[in-house]
Amino acid sequence: MTTTTTHRRSETAEAAAGGLTVFAAVLLLVSGVLDLFRGIMAIANDDVFVNTPNYVFKFDLTGWGWIQLVLGVIAMCVGAGLFTRATWARVAGVGIAGLAIIANFLSLPYYPVWSLTLIAMYGFVIWGLCTVRRER
């Protein structure tokens, strides 16, 4: 393999890594905004949500709104940090996306379509952040 081929492959790998990181950053920002709005809805007016009487994981919807609001704000901050391609933002992005998936799973009975949409979006964030490999 010549140095030209190695250099070209390295540039291609770097471009793909940058593209996936930007994809994950944008998706994390959008998901964070959606979680923020969901938290505001639950805090301001929890009549918007369906009340599920026999759900195993019962939560006060106002308290649940604060959890969603905080997760959304953290997700937006980490998403903004991903644009710098910092390693800390990548690790934090996987962590916050994992926590958000759990939170959205626990809130499935209250707002199922929104929860499933956010679970999918955060899943794509984890995929985008974990598939990027750095060249040595």
How would you sum up this structure, described in words?
- With 136 residues, the protein is mainly α.
- It has one domain.
- It is built from 4 helices and no strands.
- The longest helix has 42 residues.
- The two termini are 16 Å apart.
SSE arrangement:
Elements: H1 3-44, H2 61-82, H3 87-106, H4 112-130
Helix pairs in contact: 1-2, 1-4, 2-3, 3-4
Low-confidence stretches: none
What oligomeric arrangement do these chains adopt?
single chain
Could you tell me the mean pLDDT?
A: 81
Question: How many strands, which pairing sense, and closed or not: the largest β-sheet?
Answer: none
- Kindly report how far apart the N and C termini lie: 16 Å
> Which class of secondary structure composition applies to the elements?
mainly alpha
What helical percentage do the residues reach? Answer: over 70%
Shape designation: elongated
Number of helices: 4
Question: In a few lines, what is going on in this structure?
Answer:
The chain has 136 residues and is mainly alpha-helical. 76% of the residues lie in helices and 0% in strands. It has helices spanning 3-44, 61-82, 87-106, 112-130.
